């Protein structure tokens, strides 16, 4: 599972943030490791140079080997709040999506015997 973290100009200490985000994502997404090929994280400060209250935005995309891209977004007043909110949403989406796929794959086919019932 590849992890890429990008930030806007208003976000400082990018190297430490990348290491922290990489550790968090590897720990929390470990059970989905076989299904996820790549996770992209983008943190931005929507107020930028304007000053005022922080309006941080975190977008996460998980690329799955056998399914469509999953994208989530979360706004927060701190980097931690924005990141953890997006991660919680991503976990919920992965559980729902991958749970449905697993149930679909494990279901027995009505065509199991090669014929239609009653014929």
From TrEMBL:
Top-rank lineage group of the source organism: Bacteria
Pfam families named among the record's database cross-references: Ribosomal_S30AE
SUPFAM superfamilies found in the cross-reference section: Ribosome binding protein Y (YfiA homologue)
InterPro entries (alphabetical): RHF-like, RHF/RaiA
Species this chain originates from: Rhodoferax sediminis
Protein name: HPF/RaiA family ribosome-associated protein
Lineage, top ranks: Bacteria, Pseudomonadati, Pseudomonadota, Betaproteobacteria, Burkholderiales
């Amino acid at each position: 599972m590849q992890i890429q973290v990008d930030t806007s100009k208003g976000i400082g200490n990018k190297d430490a943030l990348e290491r922290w985000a990489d550790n968090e994502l590897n720990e929390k997404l470990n059970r989905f490791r076989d299904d996820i090929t790549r996770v992209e994280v983008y943190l931005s400060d929507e107020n930028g140079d304007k000053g005022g209250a922080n309006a941080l935005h975190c977008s996460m995309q998980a690329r799955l080997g056998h399914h469509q891209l999953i994208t989530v977004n979360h706004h927060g007043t701190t980097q931690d709040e924005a990141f953890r909110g997006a991660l919680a949403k991503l976990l919920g989406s992965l559980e729902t999506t991958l749970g449905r796929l697993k149930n679909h794959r494990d279901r027995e086919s009505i065509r199991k015997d090669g014929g239609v019932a009653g014929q």
